[in-house]
Every structure is written in C-alpha cells, then in structure tokens.
Amino acid sequence: MYIAILNALFLVGTLKSGSDASKNSNTYALSEFLAKHLESIEVQSDFVPLANYNILPGVYTNVDNNDDWPMIFEKILASDIVIFATPVWWGNQSSLIQRVIERLDEIHDEIMKSAKSKMINKVAGIVVTGDSDGAEHIIGNLTNFFIALGFTVPPFGTLTVLWSGLRKHGDKSKEEVLKYYEDTYSSTARKAAQNLAFMANLLKQNHFPD
C-alpha cells in the first residue's frame, strides 16, 4: 500500500497553561509519548495546549474577533488525524475538551442540513490520563461525538493511563512519568499509532463516497 505523508493534531486539554503544560502535565507527556510512536512511522504531530488560547464560549466557528478558535479550527481541517487528549476530572473530560466539543457543534448543524461533513475521511484518537476511574465513560462520550461529526475511530485508537502516580499534587517528575509510560505502555502506544496511521492512510487513498 502507498504510504501518504500524514499529520496528527493533538488538542491537549490539560488545565495547566504556559510552560507548565509541556513541563508538568501528565496529559501533555502522554501525548508526546504517543507522538513519538507516530513519528516512528512517519506521522508528523502538532500540539495545541488549549489552556494557552482564548477559546470563547459558543457553538459556532466564529463568535468574536478576539477568539482563537478559528485558528485552531483551521489546524483541525488541515490534519489527517485529530486526537483529543484529556485528564479525568470527576469522571469526565476536562472543561477545555468540552469547550472544543461545543465549538465544533456547527459541524453537526451542517451535517443535518446537507448530509456532508468537513470531518469525513479524517481519523480521530483519544488520550486519557488520571489516577482513578472514568476513562471508559470519556472514551464512550468522545467516540460518540467523533462518529456523529463524521470522523473514523479505528480499533485500539486510544491510549489511556490510569495510575496513582498521576494524581493531583503528585510527586513524580516528568522524567519518572515518561519512564513509567515507556516501561508499561510502549506496546499499547505502538498499536494505537499504527492503527491511527493505517486508517488515515487508507482514507487518504480511498475516500468515503459522498
């Protein structure tokens, strides 16, 4: 099979902002871990730490001139793979990931009117981190959302780490967290990366019919 050049976009829903997101966020670290495995099969990754942007409330693409969402939306449109990365907060995705869901609601409006979606032939993946249960609910919720918007979610296209070392105010350094990911989840991340890339490449060469 011909292998296309693919790009993945991680929408990282950690509540940490600024440099704290890339240095101290377990969710950002797990996203980087998956991106490393995607890179090994020639998939380029870009990261959007949502807390660093002014994403206003709303259910449309354009709501205000001071809103950063339209720029992020353009990144989504330019990506082959879109990955929602979120911590578990009280059994749900973070408020920032929920904000993304709300801002993408206009895509569902377009589907209802025209039976066409800008997200068709794109692949979706999910990254979840936490110290307690809640991942199954989040994955089910996000998968339902992705499918409703026209994304394709491949088998094993998720990467979840629930570990006491990821608890709030935990004492694990980023190096220790990454080592835990490497020692425990390398095969899972490799499988997720392979399936995400396989499906994205398949859809790039064989579009769904209109």
| Widest sheet, order of strands | 2-1-3-4-5
H/E topology pattern = EHHEHEHHEHEH
Number of helices: 7
Spans of at least 5 consecutive residues whose pLDDT stays below 50 are: none
Computed CA radius of gyration, to the nearest angstrom: 16 Å
Roughly what is the average pLDDT, rounded to an integer? 95
Report the end-to-end length measured between terminal Cα atoms: 23 Å
Tell me the major beta sheet. 5 strands, parallel
Strand proportion: 15-25%
* Strand element count: 5
What class, by secondary structure content? alpha/beta
What key phrases describe this protein's structure?
single chain; 210 residues; alpha/beta; 5-stranded parallel sheet; 7 helices
Quick structural overview:
The protein is an alpha/beta fold. 45% of the residues lie in helices and 16% in strands. The protein has a five-stranded parallel β-sheet with strand order 2-1-3-4-5, sandwiched between helices.
